[in-house]
Design brief:
Radius of gyration of chain B: 23 Å
Structural class of chain B: mainly alpha
Radius of gyration of chain A: 25 Å
Structural class of chain A: mainly alpha
Oligomer: heterodimer
CATH superfamily of the largest domain in chain B: MetI-like
Helix content of chain A: over 70%
CATH topology of the largest domain in chain B: MetI-like fold
Order of helices and strands of chain B: HHHHHHHHHHH
Strand content of chain B: under 5%
Helix content of chain B: over 70%
Strand content of chain A: under 5%
CATH class of the domain at 61-247 in chain A: Mainly Alpha
Number of domains of chain B: 2
CATH class of the largest domain in chain B: Mainly Alpha
Largest sheet of chain B: none
Number of strands of chain B: 0
Order of helices and strands of chain A: HEEHHHHHHHHHHHH
Number of strands of chain A: 2
CATH superfamily of the domain at 61-247 in chain A: MetI-like
Largest interface: A-B, 75 and 82 residues
Shape of chain B: globular
Strand order of the largest sheet of chain A: 1-2
Distance between the termini of chain B: 56 Å
Number of helices of chain B: 11
CATH architecture of the largest domain in chain B: Orthogonal Bundle
Number of helices of chain A: 13
């Protein structure tokens, strides 16, 4: 095959998806970025002419509070999800093979049902008349006036519920490949089980933990449905974006908030990518050194 | 095992946590109480209401959801397959860029894709409706389909293709008779993923929907928002859960059946490839 023919083949093979994503992903993203530098027009669109007005007013209303709430709720959700996932993944990975697939399926099954329906189920459950409140009253932890629904705590609870499987699955996948005889060896050498878990199991499933963090943090940052249905006045950035887009049609503000959200995801993501690359280099170097040592006949 | 007692307790509690709201919802769908509170007796009336004439917009929304999910699955499978093949076959700067373009939508919060597509459609003067929902769904499904097929391509032995060429197959024949059959499980898996993502999507659809083109999740959302017929949502959800479980169970049976026949299929593709 000639070189130019190959080039044409590559071009036509790449073109459909490249074109589609350029038109419907790259260009819209830049439109959002550009709209953040325009003024609002009276008809609900954007006025021509660039301005920094939006960015000057963005720190003014209650935005900082909402951004802060979004970040801490997302961070705490991620932390709880990972903490719950570690023992779960450990437990499933140590099961017999036929049980593993069954329990993993059991964890994923609720998430093949509709997301909106699951949030609705929690809304019903957390109602003053709902099951949970009745149980808490019966146990003496709450009274008729306790409000379980419509606050930041409810958002946190439902977020953990919604994103938990996305944390369990990657950690479980990593744990499945983990060599558990290492843990036994550590215990035989006198390590206490928590110490062995922390020093041997945790580094072993590191990659799983990182992807779990991303899988939970990213959707949590852009969450709309959960704070809308169980959050009450404790809104997150997603609700504000929606309000600015449809409620009072202030598109420059909506765009600026969307841009901020994008950066709040991209910055941690960039850090993780950089860190992983460094780890890879370190690992590669260690491997190369070990090989070199072995080849030169030295004792490791 | 003595050491993992704590882990087992956590796992059991997590499973209870995951299923609690679902069990309550299924129970409430048979509860005569309109507000899903105390147990006022067993009834089937919410299921009756679900199928009554006054709730036909639920079924219309369901129909739209199915239409969009099927068309978006097909289009994203075509785009995703060609993208995965290009990324797998050629290495170079263009494909590095191509890959990052496919990857980025996966790590972007959904709401950003929703708002950016809405602004694009408004900027070019496209009225929102079924078409815009289809475009949006195809856009976010392409990435998932491509990634699934790329994973499958990693196990693909490129020598099979070379063997086919050596035996005189044209690129066309080699693709349809050798590569596509081997890729098919990947394409089907990606397609299933795209279908489930499309049918369940709320946020992106919420931004790009137009009058009279609400999908099922949007319909359910507006019923929740207006506190209209909440027990009917429970009944609908229960049916959806039963349907999903049946589907998962069925796919398990099919896949275990397939595993037995796999070597035969493999053999057949190989023979066809050699021809």
């Amino acid at each position: 095959m000639t070189d130019s023919k190959k080039k044409w083949q590559e071009f036509f093979g790449t073109l459909p998806s490249l074109l589609w994503l350029t038109v419907f992903f790259v260009i819209p993203t830049f439109i959002v970025l550009k709209f953040a530098f325009h003024a609002k027009s009276p008809d609900g669109g954007v006025a021509p002419g660039l301005t920094l007005e939006t960015w000057r007013t963005i720190s003014n209303p209650n935005y900082p509070e909402i951004i802060w709430r979004t970040v801490w709720i997302s961070a705490v959700t991620t932390l709880i999800c990972v903490l719950l996932s570690l023992p779960c993944a450990y437990c499933i990975a140590r099961m017999q093979k036929k049980w593993r697939a069954f329990v993993a399926g059991l964890i994923m099954l609720p998430f093949w049902t509709s997301f909106i329906v699951r949030v609705f189920a929690w809304r019903t459950l957390l109602n003053p008349e709902g099951f949970l409140q009745q149980v808490l009253i019966w146990l003496g932890f709450a009274d008729q006036n306790t409000m379980l629904n419509y606050n930041a705590g409810a958002v946190l609870l439902v977020s953990v519920y919604s994103f938990l499987p996305f944390a369990i699955m990657p950690i479980y996948t990593a744990a499945e490949k983990f060599d558990f005889s290492l843990l036994e060896a550590a215990r035989d050498l006198g390590a206490r089980s928590f110490f062995a878990f922390r020093k041997i199991f945790l580094p072993g499933v590191k990659r799983g933990v990182i992807s779990a963090i991303l899988m939970v943090f990213i959707p949590a940052i852009g969450s709309y449905v959960i704070p809308d249905l169980v959050g009450g006045t404790d809104e997150l950035i997603g609700n504000k974006i929606y309000q600015r887009t449809f409620g009072d049609r202030n598109w420059p503000h909506a765009s600026a908030l969307a841009t901020l959200t994008a950066f709040s995801v991209l910055i941690p993501l960039g850090c993780v990518a950089w860190w992983m690359k460094r780890q890879d280099e370190k690992e590669a170097r260690r491997l190369a050194e070990a090989t070199a040592r072995r080849l030169s006949g030295g004792t490791a | 095992m003595k050491h993992s007692k704590f882990a087992i307790i956590v796992l059991v509690l997590v499973l209870l946590f995951l299923y609690l709201p679902i069990f309550i919802m299924v129970g409430d769908s048979f509860n005569a109480d309109k507000y899903c509170g105390k147990w006022l007796g067993f009834t089937f009336k919410w299921y009756g209401a679900l199928f009554s004439h006054s709730n036909r917009n639920i079924w219309m929304a369901f129909e739209r959801s199915i239409i969009i999910a099927i068309t978006a699955t097909l289009s994203s499978c075509i785009l995703g397959t060609s993208a995965a093949l290009a990324i797998h076959k050629w290495k170079g700067r263009l494909q590095t860029f191509h890959y990052s373009l496919i990857y980025t939508p996966l790590v972007m919060p959904e709401i950003l894709m929703g708002i950016s597509l809405l602004m694009l459609f408004t900027a070019i003067g496209l009225n929102c409706g079924m078409w815009t929902i289809w475009i949006a769904h195809t856009t976010f499904c392409v990435s998932y389909v491509t990634m699934t097929i790329l994973a499958r391509l990693q196990d693909f032995d490129d020598r099979i293709l070379e063997a086919a060429y050596d035996l005189g197959a044209s690129p066309w024949t080699a693709f349809f008779k050798v590569q596509l059959p081997v890729l098919m499980p990947g394409i089907i898996a990606g397609g299933l993923l795209a279908f489930t993502l499309s049918i369940d999507d709320f946020v992106i659809t919420f931004f790009v929907t137009g009058p009279g083109s609400d999908t099922l999740p949007l319909q359910v959302y507006s019923m929740i928002k207006h506190s209209k017929q909440l027990p009917v949502i429970n009944a609908l959800s229960t049916l959806m859960i039963v349907f999903t479980c049946a589907l998962v169970f069925l796919s398990r049976i099919v896949s275990s059946y397939k595993k037995k026949g796999r070597s035969l299929t493999q053999l057949r593709t190989d023979i066809k490839g050699v021809k």
